[in-house]
Amino acid sequence: MNAKNLLTAGLLVFVAAAIITIVVREGGGKDSPDMTAVSPANAPLPAEGLIAYYFHGEIRCPTCKKIESYAHEAIQTGFSEELNSGKLTWRVLNYELPANTHFATEYEIAAPTIVLVCASHGQPEDWRNLTRVWELVGDKDAFVKYVQEQTRELLTKKES
Questions:
Q1: What is the structure's pLDDT at 27?
Q2: How far apart are the first and last CA of the chain?
Q3: pLDDT per residue as tens digits for the range 2-34
Q4: Long-range Cβ contact pairs of 133-141 (< 8 A, separation 24 or more)
Q5: pLDDT tens digits, residue range 42-65?
Q6: Helices marked H in 39-100 — which ranges?
Q7: I need a surface site. Which of 17, 70, 73, 116 has the fewest CB within 10 A?
């Protein structure tokens, strides 16, 4: 292969990679946060129920995306009935946007995380920041179990 063909192939690979990056960043990829949100992130709290938030920042590293993916899977596979009935809602929210920075203070968010919020009369009644997701992200089964246990515990507490 001569230098001209090698340069042409290299440029084609670069252009293809750039196009893929743009499509994924603009929401065309399956890992796009908007594709996983079940309800609008900025929607008011339900009158009653549990909201499972995935809070992320502007910069979304592969580990952050994995945390979102694992948590979403944990909620979907463990609580389909509760999601369908409205007892549980999944939301994805950027806590670094100016309109959302209050969440960082309210729920003690220092990094992307999962926060479970119990709503009563449309107001937060109780909440948990599942900070162990960072510790468990390397073990998907343990991660899913942790998120499901914490969610089940708050759902049970809410019902009693």
A1: 45
A2: 72
A3: 766 666 655 555 554 555 555 445 443 334 443
A4: 133/67, 133/70, 133/71, 134/63, 134/67, 137/63, 137/66, 137/67, 137/70, 140/70
A5: 566 666 789 999 999 999 999 999
A6: 62-78, 80-85
A7: 17
Position 35 confidence tier, pLDDT thresholds 50, 70, 90: very low
Asked if residues 151 and 75 have their Cβ atoms less than 8 Å apart, the reply is yes
Integer Cα distance of 113 and 132 in angstroms: 9
- Is the per-residue pLDDT at 110 higher than 70? yes
Q: Which two tokens stand for residue 49?
A: 């129920």
Q: Residue 157: which of 107, 119, 105 has the closest Cα?
A: 119
Question: What does the alpha-carbon distance between residue 39 and residue 33 come to, in Å, rounded to a whole number?
Answer: 12
CA 114/CA 116 separation, integer angstroms: 7
